[in-house]
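HUMAN: Spend a minute on the protein record below and explain its fold to me.
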Amino acid sequence: MICIMRNSKHNVRTAAKEASHERIVSAAARAIRRSGYDGTGVADIMKEAGLTHGAFYAHFASREAMLAEAAGRACAESAAVVAGVVASVPPGQALASMLRAYLSPEHLVQIEMGCPLAALGSETPRQAPEVRRVTTRHIKEMIDLVARQSPDWGQPGAHERALVTVSTMVGTLLLARVVDDPALSDSLCAAALKHLPPA
């Protein structure tokens, strides 16, 4: 009986720690996209997660470890959105739907929940190797997902077109967010959509 009670208390503590960890990573994934890696402080993230600053080291060995996990979460959230778009339409329409969703006005303004590549791309080269590794894996997955939508998937041409498509998507979103001219922002997205054929 005593043994069962101890296990029950341990399970409650473990579940509470996991829930706290989840809140920290979720807050950090939003914060890095909103404020950048350098603009994301541990104290602010812990406050947003409803925890004390001192509790941070019970969850992460370092700020870099937290940033790597946050980058991984941001990439996973972005990939899930894209996968949902692909799954919601017939195969022949997947790439066109993906492009329209990625370069949509809604995604343009959803920086904190949107693509981490467009939000953090220029900062990533100066981050820890763990952060760069997570980002590189996401870029490869995104290229592969785009290539799989091509009728000649598996051929070098499909992979090369996917490289150009992903580069154009991310670059367009980044520039469309940078400019302070809404008409130019709209034109950038419209031009990319026009010149990125869906097949």
Remarks:
- The chain has one domain: 2-195.
